[in-house]
Amino acid sequence: MIDAGLCLSCQHALLRPTNRGTTYLRCALAATDDRFAKYPRLPVTDCAGFEPGRSLQ
Questions:
Q1: Most-buried pick from 17, 36, 43, 46 (CB within 10 A)?
Q2: Is residue 42 within 8 Å of residue 2, measured between CB atoms?
Q3: Domain ranges, residue 27
Q4: 7 touches 40 (CB < 8 A)
């Protein structure tokens, strides 16, 4: 896995696999707040919506 930065431990990060074997990291906050990118450019080093709470590793 590539370094996703803050997203690796953020409760709003979702992994979305495709049928072709690729996995994308999606930000759940983007569904309700336009300040957040649906698929953020990685690694994320600063995010106003970051909330620790999970580990995608």
A1: 36
A2: yes
A3: 1-47
A4: yes
